[in-house]
Amino acid sequence: MTATTTAKSGVRSVPGAPLLELENVKMHFKTKGDGFFARGTKWVQAVDGVDLTISPGETVGLVGESGCGKSTTARLVTRLLEPTGGQIRYQGVDIAHMNERQLRPYRREIQLIFQDPYSSLNPRHTVGTIVGTALRTHDMVPKSGELKRVQELLEVVGLNPEHYNRYPHEFSGGQRQRIGIARALAARPKIIVADEPVSALDVSIQAQVMNLLESLRKELGIAFVFIAHDLGVVRHFCDRIAVMYLGRVVEEGPRDSLYEKPQHPYTQALLSAVPDIGVVRGVPPKNRIRLVGDVPSPVDPPSGCRFRTRCWKAQDICATEDPALIERAPAQRVACHFAEPPAESILAETA
Amino acid sequence: MSDQSIQAPHTVSRVPRTPAANEEAYLEVSDLQVQFPTADGLVRAVQGLSYSVPLRRTLAIVGESGSGKSVSSMAVMGLHDRRVARIAGSIKVGGREIVNMSDKELEGYRGGDAAMIFQDPQSSLHPYFTIGDQIMESYRAHNNVSKRKAKDRAIDMLGRVGIPNPRRRVDQYPHEFSGGMRQRAMIAMALVNDPKLLIADEPTTALDVTVQAQILDLISDLQRDFGSAVVFITHDLGVVAEIADDILVMYAGTAIEHGPVNKILGEPLHPYAWGLLESIPALTGEPQPLHPIPGSPPSLLAVPTGCPFHPRCEFKDRVGGDLCTTLKPDLIPRTGDLGRTSRCHLKEPDKVFETEVLPRLP
Amino acid sequence: MLLYILKRVLSAISVVIVTLVASFALFFLAPTDPAGVICGPRCTPERLADIEASLDLNEPPINQIGAYMKGIVVGREYSSGGTVRECAAPCLGYSYTLGQPVTKLLGAALPVTISIVLGGAVVYLVVGILTGTIAAQVRGTSLDKLVVGSTLVVQSIPYFVFALLVALYATFLPDSGYHPFTDNPLTWASGLLAAWLCVGLTNAAAYTRYSRASMIEALGQDFVRTASSKGISRRRVVYRHGLRAGLTPVVTIFGIDLAFQLTGAIFTESIFNLPGLGQLTLRAFGQYDLPVLMGGVLIGSVVLVVMNLVVDIAYTFLDPRVRLG
Ligand SMILES: Nc1ncnc2c1ncn2[C@@H]1O[C@H](COP(=O)(O)OP(=O)(O)OP(=O)(O)O)[C@@H](O)[C@H]1O
Ligand SMILES: Nc1ncnc2c1ncn2[C@@H]1O[C@H](COP(=O)(O)OP(=O)(O)O)[C@@H](O)[C@H]1O
Ligand code: SF4
Ligand code: SF4
Ligand SMILES: [Mg+2]
Ligand SMILES: [Mg+2]
């Protein structure tokens, strides 16, 4: 047992440990065999061995296609789910299997923002109640100071503080997302996990919300796990980006090297598939990689490398040996037996 | 399906877009109005929309949600319930007027000369009928052929849209298909009668990027083969850049800018289009701060007077008097280039773009 | 599929057994005096004891239930006053008051009730689904409002009032009464017509509303828009694409309704003087005729469970997503 110190809030920590560390985290959901022929239970390997480290104030992006396990990872980090394997260490202390009482102080420090600004707010509560409840849950301010703090928070996220007694349906999508952000900020978290916070918004509104998140990050020094499927949005917001495929991180690295010299075939294909406005404004890439087929089912993922059924580089070894996530360039880790940077640029070069 | 070996990286290259020749328009929409009387008042979903698309060309209609993209294209397909929607103006397809067409004539037109692909392939296919059944129904509605012949045609179409093993797949139900394959099946269904006009309403919005790329390639390829006019609706300017020849930007039910894609995305003339470009993070270069458009799109129950964009426009002070708030600008050529139009009172928009907007694009 | 049905049948049987045991406990162990009822007013203690013995009333409850169950499976014998009565396999005992085997009584009453309920179902399904579908298509118009309004009126009249009104005023209908179908289908139908109309029209109101709501939802679905975009006729869009999807929830409600109607046709049978299950059990209830009541309970639970099973299986045929998993 390592020596831990305990803060006033009840959060324990190991001195010198990173803010958040996921080690080989797994989440296998049990599903009843559906259909009449199906017998027994199956396991959906939604997240299957994810490693990730987040330092204070850092923003880590999580990208990947639908169903690759991004939201599940988000729910694991916020401990809305208990992982079926691995460790989730917050300041060095494993919170993976803590019970609700033990988790309480940690819940405050790790907050979640949801994708859907429509369903994630209780329609029967006023904005003041929604944000105030978050304050009360974590005993943030004395009862008398609650309204003042709610109004402060509304102001911080760019809403009119006078509107604290309005209901969510009286706000637009972008404004509702701001309410969700105010609720998350109420607890003064150290980490915010944002699960596709701008995906449901129109571009002009999306940019407003991104600017808000950006200024919060700079001013409050909050670390972010930022999930999105839009590679431009992730690049804009994150220092470091992890690419997920079928429940695994296949490549992870600093923003620039990942976008300019992606080494995993999947990352290359993903970047090559992004529809880019740069193609009419600059020099379009000569050739674009196109994947064949769809992502296999997480119930029965391929053996060895999970990408091999769609990978044009696959060899025999890919079917038998699961490639480990190893460092191939400074701070850039890739899980591929034949990792190498692309021969020519994948993205359009702006003129 | 996955047992096929994939040797070389499967790559595609972009076919360069050709500038518009003086072709005859196949679809011609003029001064289209669509209104919905509701309990809250009159929703003016489309107001004075005009555009045209010749054969073998793709027009992309872009705009934020609620800007009237779907409503206008449903009108082109004759899909509005006339008891609910009030439609005025003119829609000519191959010389025939669609507005006020009789129900009987519309049946022959829909799915025959014009076909449509919808956003969500999951909900747009009937869950209780097989894929083959649904394609055959389309074919037999316009061709007097036997079931056998129709089924052969369905299998043939499934093969053409890249569905492996079409002979087996034709008898499967939509839920047995993946999202990308469902959209392929929708495309097969839309193209089964060789339509001259294809309307695709956000056909890739519900799909993943790698699958979206496949579908965009497919639509481009098929258009080359079939030679149809395509109206491609999307809110993603990246997709527009990939697929369109021309682009029409909609705001609050009207077109605010129209022209060839490289012009509109490269040097747009309307402040709203500038705002859109400034909102999209780039994929290369040092990330620049975004300059979003303030506020949010207007309610169509109470569209602002004058220029509908004026409450959000940072350039309205540059226009003399209160022109922006009182007079709706016309959609006209604003520079020497007659091939493009925009709807704004601002003087010398090309100069403003170059000196003020371009330097701060992300 | 077969495995699924087998599993469902097994669970259905266990539900029936549990119901039986529970009602057995409630009825037979209740502080009633069945032997006294059978014995009648001029009863001697010897005769009472004899009857009690013949009914196993002296045995512990477990044995009583055991004997009853055994009777259902292999049959049993009753001895009273020295004579032994043979009661063959599905034996549900003898009616205390009518002295006949319960199976025979049920066998006579069941066809009556089934005739009423199924005939009525045909009426309300046809009327309800058709008007519901039409109302859904013209939603918001005065015709739609008229339809919705009349369903509200019909539904607000208590059923027995409606049935009495039909019985009193619809004198132009043929006389009500039960004539077996096998004797003459025509007299069978004419004798049941009043009951059918009564069951059919009252329930049609509910089915109009179910179908209307279900069709409005179905017609708003994306796949209906897709169907319209193909250029097929409006009728085909509504009846092939819309109705197919809209019917599924209606079928579910129908399956459950039907089971309740089979067990609850008491008013209809009394008012139209039809010797069905409802009348039989109602009479048995008034006379503490426990074996008959138990038989009614048994039939009721079997019907409920079977209808549930039928609905589930019907679902797999309606919706390929369920069928193929
Ligand atoms: N409670 C659950 N039970 C069973 N399977 C689940 C459960 N939650 C998620 N899954 C499955 O786990 C996989 C990963 O899901 P997850 O929601 O994390 O994906 P995602 O990457 O967030 O996708 P998206 O981009 O669509 O939001 C999917 O296959 C999903 O169906
Ligand atoms: N049946 C209807 N009744 C009232 N308003 C409608 C109806 N259909 C669409 N609208 C309104 O018309 C506007 C344009 O919608 P739409 O064309 O679907 O937008 P989009 O550009 O996102 O496709 C929206 O404000 C929408 O709410
Ligand atoms: S390990 Fe093999 S299959 Fe996997 S990505 Fe690398 S080359 Fe492709
Ligand atoms: S007309 Fe005026 S308000 Fe409208 S876009 Fe142009 S400058 Fe802005
Ligand atoms: Mg998700
Ligand atoms: Mg739309």
UniProtKB/TrEMBL annotation, chain A:
Q: Which UniProt keywords apply?
A: ATP-binding, Nucleotide-binding, Transport
Show the stretches that span the lipid bilayer.
none
Is ATP-binding one of the keywords?
yes
Question: Which residues belong to any copy of the ABC transporter domain?
Answer: 20-271
Classification via InterPro entries: AAA+_ATPase (IPR003593), ABC_transp_ATP-bind (IPR050319), ABC_transporter-like_ATP-bd (IPR003439), ABC_transporter-like_CS (IPR017871), Oligopep_ABC_C (IPR013563), P-loop_NTPase (IPR027417)
Q: Pfam families, alphabetically?
A: ABC_tran, oligo_HPY
What one GO molecular function would you report for this record? ATP binding
Similarity field: Belongs to the ABC transporter superfamily.
UniProt protein name: ATP-binding cassette domain-containing protein
Species annotation:
Paractinoplanes ovalisporus
From TrEMBL, chain B:
Q: One GO molecular-function annotation for this sequence? A: ATP binding
Q: Which PROSITE patterns match?
A: ABC_TRANSPORTER_1, ABC_TRANSPORTER_2
Q: Which UniProt keywords apply?
A: ATP-binding, Cell membrane, Membrane, Nucleotide-binding, Transport
* Localization per record: Cell membrane
Membrane topology note: Peripheral membrane protein
Q: Which SMART domains match?
A: AAA
Is Membrane found in the keyword set?
yes
Q: Does the keyword Amino-acid biosynthesis apply?
A: no
Instruction: Read off the InterPro entries from this record.
Output: AAA+_ATPase, ABC_Ni/Peptide_Import, ABC_transporter-like_ATP-bd, ABC_transporter-like_CS, Oligopep_ABC_C, P-loop_NTPase
Q: What is its main location?
A: membrane
Residue ranges constituting the ABC transporter domain according to the UniProt record: 27-277
- Family under the similarity heading: Belongs to the ABC transporter superfamily.
Q: Which PANTHER family match?
A: DIPEPTIDE TRANSPORT ATP-BINDING PROTEIN DPPD (PTHR43297:SF2), OLIGOPEPTIDE TRANSPORT ATP-BINDING PROTEIN APPD (PTHR43297)
Kindly provide the name given to this protein in its UniProt entry: ABC transporter ATP-binding protein
Gene source species:
Paractinoplanes ovalisporus
UniProtKB/TrEMBL annotation, chain C:
PROSITE patterns in the cross-refs: ABC_TM1
- Keyword field: Cell membrane, Membrane, Transmembrane, Transmembrane helix, Transport
Q: What is its main location?
A: membrane
- Record domain ABC transmembrane type-1: where: 110-315
Subcellular localization? Cell membrane
Q: How does it sit in the membrane?
A: Multi-pass membrane protein
| Annotated TM spans | 9-30, 108-134, 146-168, 188-207, 245-272, 292-318
InterPro entries reported for this sequence: BPD_transp_1_N, MetI-like, MetI-like_sf
Q: Which domain of life is it from?
A: Bacteria
Q: Which Pfam families match?
A: BPD_transp_1, BPD_transp_1_N
Q: Which family does it belong to?
A: Belongs to the binding-protein-dependent transport system permease family.
UniProt protein name: ABC transporter permease
Q: Provide the species name.
A: Paractinoplanes ovalisporus
